[in-house]
Amino acid sequence: MLQDLQDWRVEGALNPWRKPGRVGLSVVIPCYNEAPVIDALMARLMPVCEAASPGDYEIVLVNDGSSDATWALITAHAARSAHVVGVDLARNHGHQLALTCGLQVCRGERVLVIDADLQDPPELLPEMMRLADEGADVVYGQRVVREGETMFKKATAAAFYRVLERLIDIDIPRDAGDFRLMTRPVVDTLNAMPERFRFVRGMVGWVGFRQVALPYKRDARFAGETHYPLRKMLALAFDAVTSFSVKPLRIASLFGALAGLAGFVMLGWVLSVWLTSGTVHGWTSMIAVVLILGSVQLLVLGVFGEYIGRMYIETKGRPMFVVRQVFRGDQA
Ligand code: UDP
Ligand code: MG
To answer: What sections of the protein cross the membrane (predicted)?
Structure first.
């Protein structure tokens, strides 16, 4: 039942893991150490899929290098149901790349992306399908209430979406995560985008098409705890900004202009002191100015470095992720 990756190379060099053909609906779920929730997730998700697209759906569970029993649970589900596809990444690649992998493997005309932890209710699927029937290409869940999350998480998330809005020119919906239903043309466009630093919800906004919001209440995690500590949230924020905006590069000119202005003001002040008292004392202020200018220069260099580092990594052209194996229940 374990599938030799070589089998799928015949289908296309770009995507060796996708089985040929299409299904009506795919659900893509990145899973990282989600053993406590997998069973509950499947119990809630399967009936919803069966109702939305009877017999014609697949659930793609991407194991993002979990160190717990997640993969064993995924294969158990895949062995029981032909609708379940398990994809095992070679190591932990992070949420956005696990999601990207799922999008490349799935075969659905419509694709639902959802977190494993049941924070996003699968029961919204019929409503999303209805909006897609009415012509939407992307139906994204917009969180109006977030339960079971700390004040800190809510505040940082709110600040993040608002700062991002000011920095970038494309429409990235506020307070929307990756919980969304997309049509095949949108998924194909995403799959054709080669960048390694992926901020998927931003890329979906970039693609365009007809995007419709579906407000919902985000529940607390069913079990386990968040895998987005501050460090990962900051990394995601950096990826988001650098992938979609070059405005930070321009802060160098802004700082330069400000420092120049301050310099002239100070010169005026020094001259007036010199004219009235004849002497100027200024070691302390000079050191202060040198330090401030030095730190601004280093800061700007750091911003440049952030972009150059990303360019360097992108030019290496390594694969975005490595798949260890694909497990399909229907391959017995
Ligand atoms: N996730 C992943 N790889 C990671 C971290 C998270 O695949 O390195 C998955 C995780 O299993 C979940 C989703 O991404 O399905 C969102 O993660 P989480 O619930 O921890 O984030 P939060 O909802 O707290 O922002
Ligand atoms: Mg979560």
So the answer is: 254-275, 287-308
